[in-house]
Structures are given as C-alpha cells and as structure tokens.
Amino acid sequence: MVAQSLTLQRWIFLGVASIVVHIFVLASLKEFSESQIARFKMRVPVAIRVSQSQKVEQPTPVPIAKSTPLPKKHIVQSATAKPVEKPTPVPEMHGLSASSFAPAQSASSTSTEAVAGNSLIVPDTGVRKAPEEVVALPKSTESVDLSETAHIDLKTLVRPEYTKDALKVRLLGSFPVDVHVSAGGEVLEVEFSKAIGFGMDERIRAALLKAHFFPERDKSGKAMETWVTIQFKLEMPN
Q: What share of the chain is helix, strand, coil (3-state, %, to 5)?
C-alpha cells in the first residue's frame, strides 16, 4: 500500500510540474511576440519616410529649337528660244545617163557600157537582156575527185576472242580477208583466200559481219558496192 501511494504521489508531482512548465513557456512566447510586433511597428514608419524622401526627380524638358527654312532658289529661265537647226540635205544620187546604156560609137568615146535595168543607181525600167545575150560563166576545167576506197570503221569492230587452240600456239600476225561491202556500208560476205585455222576463221567472220564499212565511192562521190581485201591483225590478249 505504501508503494502504491508513493507512485501516485510521483505521478501527481510530475503532472503539476508539466503544467507549470507549459504556463511558463506560453508566457515567454507571449512576451516575445509582443516585443517583435512593437519593433515592426517602429520600422514601418521609418521605411515609409525614407521611400517618400527618395523620389526620382524627372528631368526638365529641353526645348527643341526649330530649324530655319532655307531660302528657295529662284531659277531664272531664259526667254530666248534657241534656233531650230535645219537638217542637212541629203545630196541627190545621180546615176548614169541614158546615153551610157548605148554601145560606144567609137574608141575615143567616153560613154560607159552598162546592163540595162540592172544598175543600183538608175531606176529600173523593166528592160532585161534576152537569154541568148547572157554570157554563161566558164566551167572549171579541173573537176574535184571524190573517189574513196572502201575501208572498215574501227569503232564498230569487236575483236574476236581467241580459241584454246589459238592460245596454245600463240597465234599472231596479219591475215588477208576478202570482204563484200554494199553501197550502204554493210558487210554482205566474208571469204578467206587462205585459211587461218585453229578455229579463228569463224570468229573473224562473225566479227566482220557485225562491223560497218565506209563504202567505196567514184569520182563524183557516189557510193558503190564492191569487194575489198583487208589485213586482219591478231594480237594475244593480255
């Protein structure tokens, strides 16, 4: 029983002590808040007075001086009119006289012979020479030779591939081939005066049949169908 009474008294003492501490804390807070409010009230008027005293002075406007207008220049125009220049007259073109178109009467005559109606100076009267009176221009005695021998256009020739046998024997050299060329330059036939062998005859024939030739032409330049012999050169591939 004594222990229980002591415990109860302890709890009562602790409760009273906590109440006293709370009352003391609340009183201190009240005094602190009142002092802060008083200080704030003292600062506000000072700040207002400082802000009112520091007013920004506006600059005094400077009057702008008006510019004096420049005096107008008086342009004096001359009333005297310039004389109008007359155009220089074109001299009249004088052509040959009528007597100039007549044949000379004698060797001492100074008249000039001219074709009637063809002068650029005397007006054309429509008079023309008869066809039999016109002298034909002499033809040139030397005619231009336009003849040409048929020859292959190398741009159109595709070199034939070597056969295995030709590669083994390393076939080289130039071989004569007869080619029948049309007037248009097409290859019509291909013949060998001597066989080349090693399977190259057929390959050369096929390459020439696909090629194009410049045809043979006579002296007047006319293309003609003809036979031509060419030297077909064989070279080992790299």
A: 35, 15, 55
